[in-house]
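EI: anyone free to look at a 292-residue chain?
SC: sure, send it
EI:
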Amino acid sequence: MLGVLGDLVEDIVVWADGPLRHGTDSGARVFRRRGGSAANVARFAAGQHPARFLGCVGADAVGDGVVAELAGHGVDVRVSRRGRTGSVVVLIDQDGERTMLPDRGAATLLERVPDAWLTGLTHLHVPAYSFDGEPVGGTAVDALVRVRRAGGTTSVDASSTGMLERFGRERFLALLAGLAPTFVFADRSESEFLGLLVGGLPGPERARLAATTVVTKAGAGPTVVDVPGEPPLVVPVPPVAEVRDLTGAGDAFAAGFLAGFLDTGDLARAVGLGHRSAARVLASPGASWGGE
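SC: here you go
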């Protein structure tokens, strides 16, 4: 079973009709969706591979709703209930690009994961958002270490350059070096910021993650898989008919990739499944597949 630890929140997705007009009204369409990077990965993976979500939500009606929505997609949801469920305002421009205003709320309050939550996991995935804040930061590190000690594989998603800047580049690289995850997922800007891949080639900090495969996405450009000691695997992205909202595309890619890798062990096939999974969210509001 694939485990995913991190945020489960409510997304308030705003599709702006045009450029925002400061100090007055701007036309928009507003959608409320279940969100959270970790929850997205668990949801998108669940149709392809057994998936479990580990996290914390508030003891409130919003928490009840997002837990029920996630479980309704076949995810094995394990949550503690404390504080207030978080929310993220997601502003989407005409090109589909996101600007996010997060208030993570209870997602940061996850304390030590019970052994029962980790039982049966063969892989644990953690978005880097979960390292930003306590007690969830220490909880995430502890869970990753425990899964590795039990013989499982692990992965970390770099999440966002904004988060990495707040957390600290050197601090994050040192954390990754200590955890030695099986995979690190990043987009091109995150990978270059960390010095892991620059211009499609291993960057100056790559040697610090000698046991980790780095998977770098580049939007419509090819995905580069840098396996230690091997030439980079470059996989083109198939054309996508419509791009309206990029929210959740990276999470959907990680879900498809991990489901494919855990089922087959074939990296090229895993990337292809990641691309196919990501393409399904690009025309829908928020982290949802078309038709939801």
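EI: Residues 249-264 form the longest helix (16 residues).
SC: 👍
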